[in-house]
Design a protein that fits this description.
Number of strands: 11
Bound molecules: zinc ion
Distance between the termini: 35 Å
Number of domains: 4
CATH superfamily of the largest domain: Putative Large Serine Recombinase, Chain B, Domain 2
Number of helices: 15
Shape: globular
Largest sheet: 4 strands, parallel
Length: about 425
Amino acid sequence: MTKSAVTYSRYSSAGQDPQTIQTQQAACHKWAKENGYTVIKDYVDEAASGKSTAKRYQFQQMLHDAKHGEFSAVIVLDSSRFARSATDSLVARQELAESDVRVISVTEGFDEETPEGKFMVTIISAVNQHTSDAMAARTRRGQEATMERAKAAGKGIYMGGTVSLGYLIDKDTRHFELDPVTAPVVEQIFEDFSKGVPVVDICEKLNKTGVKTAQGNSFTKSSLQNLLKNPIYTGLFSYSTTEIADGVPRIVSDEVFEACQARIARQRNVRKNKRSYLLASKIYCDVCDEWLIGTSATGNGGHFLYYSCKKAVGKDKTCNVKYICGEKLENAVLESSQALLTDENISLIAKAVSALSKKRSENPYIAQLTKEISKTEKAIENLLDQIESGNATDTISTRFQKREDELQILKAELKKVRANSKPLEESTILSFLN
Ligand SMILES: [Zn+2]
């Protein structure tokens, strides 16, 4: 299967840029050839000086063309060619992702979209999960001790997280108390629902009066249902496996609560037989190189799962690979995957994963983001100075708001990138895989 790609190169006249357009393009073309891509177009912005992408005409053209689905990847020499500012980069990447176009950076190495890359990234996050699970076990022991105290006192203790609507937490004892403002609201919600008031009406009433959920959002059908299903309102404190009856102040009587549960049960439309397709978009049709997708059919007294070639079930119907038994195929793949996990292969995987993980920890994107964050913070400082000196105009306020928004996006992105960039030792990975 050949994939189409375009290259994007940029020459910065301001600095002394050692990479000419020609060398950038050559590197991108070489990568494309080695990785099974056909380059259908080269985009170039010569001497584009600005930090923002707004004036990079070819870049804009490339974003525009991406929407027509003629190519599936944009190859750049390094991510600084793609965009100078992290915000621009995020926005553009998002836009491209919406058209299923990926951005590949030649020098920054590993393409995490390849099957190998995805596999390794999966292992990295599994090991990270495992490590954090181990840490959780340690804190759990502390929590268990707290729960023992709570049980002895017959009173629930706040253990963190969102406090259910209707309650406040005593700062010293961490016991639950009724919130004089929201507890009556909760009581009314149960009352209305148990009497058959339509959910939409309840939500509308709440939202009109400005009441927010415990998370601070407007009420929706599902947040209302979550509230109605929460047994805390009958006075039940529950944390992990600990339950204490009358451990918190009661807001709703058992009768009203039960009536509400019965109504919820009647409303629930039971959706069964929802099954995930383990191998969907992980295997190809041998005949035409297309993805296999999961399909299901009911018949002969059961529900059956199949994998079918995309070209067999789609519009064109040019392939007849239609009914591969899902269970057999999945078992066969599972068995042969297990056979592949020999000691030798495990140590190879551990080596490769650890190398990738180190590379990710040196992610140049982190430095770029950090720089961008401090720049944005400085800009915000300057705008604040202007506002404080009484020169605030509407424009300044708008710019201030925009900068603040940008800062939030950047910080969230940095957190995400950092979380995935912790280097893992080979031994950690080995012990995980074993
Ligand atoms: Zn096929």
